[in-house]
Design brief:
This protein is mainly β and about 475 residues long. It has one helix at about 90-95; strands at about 1-5, 5, 25, 30-40, 45-50, 65, 75-80, 100-105, 110-120, 120-125, 135-140, 140-145, 145-150, 155, 170-175, 180-190, 195-205, 210-220, 225-235, 255, 270, 275-280, 285, 290-310, 335-340, 355-365, 370-375, 385-405, 415-425, 430-435, 445, 455, 460-465, 470-480. Among the domains are: about 1-85 and about 165-190, no CATH class; about 90-155, no CATH class; about 305-350 and about 385-480, Immunoglobulin-like (Sandwich), CATH 2.60.40. About 0% of the residues lie in helices and about 55% in strands.
C-alpha cells in the first residue's frame, strides 16, 4: 500500500517542535549534510513510500532514514532515487514518436494544432577535429500537416504523465517495520551544491594602525531545493571527501543579515572533532540559487602592524651546491607591504578564523573609505599571527647588487659581498626588513656585516633597516660558503 510522506514545517516556537525544523551543516568544500523530519505512517511488514522533498544533487549512497526514538525497528529494504525531474525538454523526449497538441495564437485567437514529435531537443557529445569532446544541441523536429519544421509550433500540451514520472527529485523506499506505527522519522543525507566562505573587512582610521575587524560568512545554495526556517551550521577545516564535487555556475541572489547592536544574536563558534563549527543564531530560509551573508565576528580596536619587506633576490632552494657565478646578481626594486595582527583575545579577537579573503580599507581626509589591498588567509587558530601581503610601496625603493665574488682555485670555498640600498622618498620614517637568501649552500658564515642581523631559518637572514624621510640607508655584508 502506497503511503504518502509529508514534510511538516513548524513555525511556532515550542521546544517540543524544534526537532521538526530542517537542519543543514555546510562545509566549505561545496557539499553539505541535510537533516529533515518526515512523517511516516507504516503498517507491520513491507511499505512502499515516496518522498519528494530532497535536493537535486543528493548522494543516494549517503541516505540514512531512522526512527530517532528507537521505538520502531525500521529497515530500508530497497531505495530508489530520481534526481531528474521532468521539464519541457524531458517531456518532449518522453513523447518522442507520438502526436501531441500545441497551443498557439493566430490573429489574437488561441488555436490548437496537432503535431508529431519526430525528434525531441537534446544535447549530444561529439568530438572536434582535435579529438576533444564538445556539446552539440539538437533542435526539435516536429511534423505538422505532413511537413517537418525545426521549431515548436506552439506551447506543447502534454497528456497525463502517469505514476512513473516525477516533478521533483524523489526518494522511493521499500520500508520494513516490525509493527504498525506512525512517527516522525529523521532523514539525513549528503548533497553537493552547497558551500560557504569567509570574508573579512578591516577598516583603518585616518591615522594609526588599530582596525575595526568584521568577518562575514556567505552561504550559497545551488542544490535545487529551498530550505524553510532551517537551522544552519558551518564546518571550517580541510575535511577529506573521496570524490571532489564539481562546481556549478548559478545565478546568485544576495541577502544581508547584519548583527545590530550588542544585544543581537551572535554566531556560536566551538571546536568539533578536529575542525571548528559555527552555528547561526537564528533559523533562516535559504532559497535555491541564493547566497546569504551573516556577520559572525567583530572586533574593535584590533591592533595591526605595517611591515615593509625587501627581498631583492627571491631564490629557490633546490638542494645541492650552487656554483653558478652569475646566479644571484639580478635584483628587483619592489618593497612589499604587509599587515600583521595577533589573533588574541587581548587584541580584540582570539577566535578561530576560517580561511577566506581579507580586505583592508583606510579612512581618507574626506571621511570616505578607500580600498588599500587584500589577500587570502588560511584557517587560523586563536593565538596565532596573521600576516597579509597587500602590494608594493610607491615611495620606497630597494636596490641589490653584488660587489665582489671570489672562488678559491683549490679549496671548496666561495666568498661574495653584497650591497643593498633602501631609498625612502616618503615624508615619514620607515623600517624595512631586508631579507637575504643564502642560496648557495647550507654551510655559510657572515663576515663584516654593516649592522646586526637575525637568522630566520637555515638559509635566510634579515636586516632591520630604518630610513629617514627622503633618506637612504645601505646594508653590506660578505658571506663565505665552504663545502
Amino acid at each position: 500500500m502506497m503511503k504518502s510522506i509529508r514534510l511538516q514545517f513548524f513555525t511556532v516556537c515550542l521546544a517540543t517542535l524544534v526537532s521538526a525544523q530542517p537542519a543543514i551543516t555546510v562545509y566549505n568544500e561545496n557539499f553539505g549534510v541535510v537533516r529533515d523530519t518526515v512523517s511516516l505512517d507504516l503498517n507491520a511488514g513491507l511499505n512502499d513510500v515516496s518522498y519528494s522533498g530532497v535536493t537535486a544533487q543528493l548522494e543516494p549512497e549517503s541516505v540514512i532514514l531512522r526512527d530517532p526514538s528507537g521505538a520502531v525497528a525500521l529497515s530500508v529494504v530497497e531505495q530508489s532515487y530520481r534526481g531528474d525531474p521532468v521539464d519541457q525538454q524531458r517531456l518532449l523526449q518522453m513523447f518522442e514518436g507520438q502526436s501531441i497538441r500545441f497551443l498557439k495564437v493566430v490573429d489574437g485567437k488561441e488555436v490548437i494544432e496537432s503535431g508529431k514529435i519526430i525528434r525531441a531537443p537534446s544535447m549530444i557529445t561529439t568530438k572536434n577535429q582535435y579529438g576533444n569532446p564538445q556539446q552539440k544541441h539538437l533542435e526539435p523536429i516536429i511534423q505538422v500537416d505532413g511537413e517537418l519544421q525545426t521549431r515548436l509550433p506552439g506551447v506543447p500540451l502534454f497528456p497525463s504523465l502517469g505514476d512513473d514520472s516525477v516533478l521533483q527529485p524523489t526518494l522511493s523506499w521499500k520500508l520494513h517495520s516490525d509493527k504498525k506505527a506512525a512517527f516522525d522519522a529523521q532523514l539525513s543525507y549528503l548533497t553537493n551544491g552547497m558551500s560557504w566562505k569567509s570574508d573579512y573587512n578591516l577598516v583603518l582610521p585616518k591615522q594609526g594602525d588599530a582596525v575595526t575587524f568584521t568577518g562575514w560568512v556567505s552561504i550559497e545554495n545551488n542544490t535545487g531545493k529551498t530550505f524553510e526556517d532551517a537551522k544552519i551550521k558551518l564546518i571550517a577545516g580541510d575535511v577529506n571527501k573521496v570524490e571532489p564535487p564539481q562546481p556549478q555556475r548559478r545565478e546568485k541572489v544576495y541577502a544581508m543579515a547584519m548583527a545590530d547592536g550588542a544585544s543581537a544574536p551572535q554566531v556560536e563558534a566551538k571546536k568539533f572533532d578536529e575542525f571548528h563549527m559555527y552555528a547561526l543564531p537564528l533559523a533562516t530560509t535559504l532559497r535555491d540559487r541564493e547566497t546569504k551573508q551573516v556577520e559572525f565576528v567583530r572586533g574593535e580596536n584590533v591592533q595591526t602592524t605595517k611591515l615593509y619587506v625587501y627581498e631583492g633576490l627571491k631564490a629557490s632552494y633546490r638542494g645541492g651546491m650552487n656554483l653558478n657565478q652569475n646566479y644571484g646578481q639580478n635584483g628587483q626594486p619592489d618593497v612589499a607591504i604587509y599587515r600583521e595582527l595577533e589573533n588574541r583575545k587581548e587584541n580584540g579577537l582570539g577566535v578561530a578564523l576560517p580561511a577566506g579573503r581579507m580586505r583592508f580599507y583606510r579612512m581618507d581626509e574626506d571621511g570616505q573609505l578607500e580600498f588599500t589591498g587584500e589577500n587570502t588567509i588560511d584557517h587560523t587558530p586563536k593565538n596565532e599571527t596573521i600576516r597579509v601581503y597587500l602590494g608594493n610601496a610607491f615611495d620606497i625603493v630597494g636596490e641589490r647588487k653584488r660587489t665582489n665574488f671570489y672562488k678559491h682555485p683549490s679549496q671548496d670555498l666561495i666568498r661574495e659581498t653584497f650591497e643593498i640600498e633602501i631609498r625612502n622618498r616618503s615624508e615619514e620614517t620607515v623600517t624595512v626588513k631586508v631579507v637575504e637568501p643564502l642560496f648557495r649552500w647550507s654551510n655559510w658564515k657572515i663576515q663584516k656585516p654593516s649592522q646586526a642581523f637575525e637568522k630566520t631559518d637555515a638559509q635566510t637572514i634579515e636586516f632591520p633597516v630604518t630610513v629617514d624621510p627622503d633618506g637612504t640607508q645601505t646594508v653590506t655584508y660578505t658571506v663565505e660558503y665552504t663545502w
